[in-house]
Amino acid sequence: MTGKHKNEHEENQPQTKAPETEKPEINKGETQTEASDEQKITPPENSPAEKLAAKDAEIAALNDKYLRLYSEFDNYRKRTLRERIELSKTASADIISLLLPVIDDMERAIKAHNETETPITVLQDGEKLIYNKLINLLKQNGLEPINAIGEEFSTDFHEAVTNIPAPEPGLKGKIVDEIQKGYSLNGKVIRYSKVVVGS
Prior knowledge:
Shape: elongated
Low-confidence stretches: 1-9
Distance between the termini: 162 Å
Oligomer: single chain
Mean pLDDT: 77
């Protein structure tokens, strides 16, 4: 075989190459996603100045909220105090209005007694009527007399003026006389009964 034919034969022969190692394909989309995930997981830290500014803003907001709450509470306290003072001034207006007719009755009785010679029995009847009218008005508004004579002495309702020997054995430790009647208003004692207790 000549040199020329030898060269042509070598060219026609398939060339055998060394096997190449396959490289894994890299998906560009996955690479970008992983990079973005890394950015989300590890965000860049703020500088100390930015952190301080954020804290100052938070403190200012809390301080403003506190001042608003304090101002609202102070206004509420002043308003309730003013209402309480006004209520204390006018609390007795209703009961006094109810007592005015009793005063009118007493004035008419005094005037009638001065102008005419009214029999004493008529005056006594008039006094009883006025007294009963007054008591009924007060009872309608929660006033109740405190029972005393014959009752066991109780510091919750009675004030002992003095002690005397009990006239009967059964009256020992009990009230034998009443110096001044006591009253309660809607269940609360407003004046204690002044009493004499048997000993």
